[in-house]
Amino acid sequence: MTKQSALLRTSLLGILALAACQDQATAPTALAPTSSTRLAAGTSRVSLDGYSASVLAGAEVFDRITNAGSSVINPADYSCPASTPVNDWLNGKILHTLAVEPDAFWQLYDLAADQVPLYEALLFQTPATVQSFGYTGEHTKDVTKTERQLKSFWDIPSADIQVVAMHGSALLDVRQVAATYEVAYGVPAADAQFLAEVVRSTLAGSKTMNGGNYPFFTFNAVSTTAQPGLWTNKIVMGDGIMAVFDELGFGDVAPQAILAHEYGHQVQFNKGYRLAGVTPPERTRFAELNADAMSAYFLTHKRGATLNEKRVMQFLEVTYDIGDCQFTSSGHHGTPNQRRAAAQFGFTLAHEAQKQGQILTADQFQARFLAAYPSLIAPDAANAAIASIAPATR
Question: N or C: at which end does the chain have fewer Cβ atoms within 10 angstroms?
Fold first, then answer.
């Protein structure tokens, strides 16, 4: 549902290119993989060059991994906005920081400050960890209530699904950040400690990044399967993505809608819903439209979240333009029109089910979605070869 950190990094390149040329006169110093590095006075920045996080390699992950790939659909067939309220808001925050303290931004960027909070939440947040959602905990009640509702609404085992928060303020915790560098990136302990200290000192001295309560660091929500020995099935809710929608006036529905979409992916994981015989980009679009429909069904069902359909659709209209015109990305979610159609499908099913006072099982819902899928994508796919491919379930 959200714009993933990887996609966000790609989409920011155009905005940041000029600033990079102006502000990165000296290239950052790559951390030596084999020895501890210290940042002497007057030297250039340090970075994580030479290290990459690999802990997600064995998990199914949605709304996080986005790589360039073959074209999902023909971009010439669609009209996509040059900008959106969400992108404009976020970019405004970043451009302000670049104008005030570019060196601080680039140092934290080089040390993956927009990645570390996610890995910290995946690796170290447990059922015993007290969770709060939002910069000041303002969304904790709504998220925890919606989690309970989702787990009773969909007929899948839910005891092992954990919903945790992703906080940018975690970047101030040297111990946690160092541990994250060690486990997620394979950085030696001494170097990890040093880098965590650089992150803390840079962030603590920032004039614009609010001690980590800065949307760029946590502009994300992620759903992932378990990694044995590391974490159970998890949904990670970023403070930054919720803060954006607070600012845009959707704080009353955004946390519930974001969580409902990510929980839809957990239903897919459990049930093995897949689209067989097609490339990964198209499978991603299928999964995202499927999660959109599940979310809309739950959010407006009288035995679900019971939110107002018109209000939910107003929120969804804002979200659908985010990242949905990345036609050559394996993380393409579907065009805005396709996502509206998927949501409307979910709304309609909720209204029909309410007449009988029932909640469809996941398999019943999925059978109806599979039958409708060709028509859901048809308005944006005149040559929809996918219509002739039978999606498979386990």
Answer: C
